[in-house]
Design a protein that fits this description.
8 helices, globular, alpha+beta
Length: 172
């Protein structure tokens, strides 16, 4: 978990502080009938002002009997790839981790994988959220990029960055 703590600190440091956004991970132990936890199921989620807006594996069609996605889900590698990408390339880069790990190949056709995507719009959802929240991306470039966003939740982040929380009607 210490490796994730370093990753979390780096990605959270890229978010605009106005958003009150954070990327989190929790591990839930899987206990078989003998009572001892032999493995843990990771849960990755993004919170915006204490509300969860992206959740893995909940938002994904994952086979619960498969243990392979628990250890090799690719989310940490995707976040690392995002952090290491130069700012000038972020808005137009096709991140390999999203398509290869979430059940689709780069051409968008289904791939045989244990973690199949249930909703094609969620394929690019994580990096779209990161791009919308990234304080290194100026507001002018953010507005230009917003026309190509496929994730509705990213629009919420963009609106908060442009107009503040006062410009958004919060729902309970």
């Amino acid at each position: 978990m210490s490796a994730f703590s370093k990753l979390k600190k780096q990605i959270d440091g890229l978010f605009d502080p106005v958003l009150k956004m954070e990327f989190c991970c929790s591990a839930y132990p899987m206990r078989p009938k003998n009572g001892y936890a032999t493995r843990s199921i990771p849960r990755f989620y993004v919170k915006l002002d204490k509300k969860i807006i992206w959740d893995f594996p909940k938002d994904f069609d994952v086979d619960p009997r498969s243990s392979e996605w628990c250890t090799d889900n690719g989310i940490s590698a995707l976040v690392r790839e995002y952090i290491d990408t130069p700012v000038s390339e972020i808005l137009h880069k096709e991140f390999s981790g999203e398509y290869l790990r979430f059940g689709y190949n780069r051409k968008g056709s289904p791939k045989t994988s244990r973690a199949k995507q249930s909703d094609p719009d969620v394929v690019v959802s994580l990096t779209d959220l990161f791009k919308a929240a990234d304080r290194r991306i100026g507001k002018e470039k953010l507005v230009q990029w917003s026309g190509s966003v496929k994730n509705f939740k990213a629009y919420t982040i963009i609106c908060v960055r442009l107009y503040g929380w006062e410009g958004i009607i919060k729902q309970p």
